[in-house]
Amino acid sequence: MRNLLLEPVEYKIERTRRGAWRRFVYPDGRYFAEFKTHATFLGWPWLHYTAGVCPETGRRIMAKGVLAIGRSALGGLAVGQAAFGVIAIGQLAVGLGLGLGQAASGVIAIGQAGIAGLFGLGQIATGMVAIGQLGVGRYVLAQWGFGEHVWQQHGADPQAMEFFRNAYEQVSAFFN
Question: Of all residues in the chain, what percent carry a pLDDT higher than 70?
């Protein structure tokens, strides 16, 4: 098999009114695709999508855009196996605001491990408010909890009980 890294790559380029596709199919059937919108915001495309390994570099390309979708993604809303953004969704999700994923961090983090500044929800959760099997924070609702006001299987702090009951009532009222 020939080494594509040393040769010019013949992409199939398709321009649409919204953006441009760059695609390549390897001789063995593997596929590379990238889409970027023409429109930008502060120099970033509104949408950047990547899939597969770039034949020029032999590496995956990080999707970077206002909406970034790819194996690794960086943007306002980032979706990928490893996602970094204001809102990040992925197995590893590092969000400035919201992280949602298996291992998530952010001001609000929801995931198997939710490591948060304000609100963490997950099997392992941290934050000012933490809800999980193992929780660490100021107000904690957990099977095993550590913090200032903890409601756990071995007992409940009265302030923790009042805090979580009030939170439950507010959430219930919002959805009813």
Answer: 97
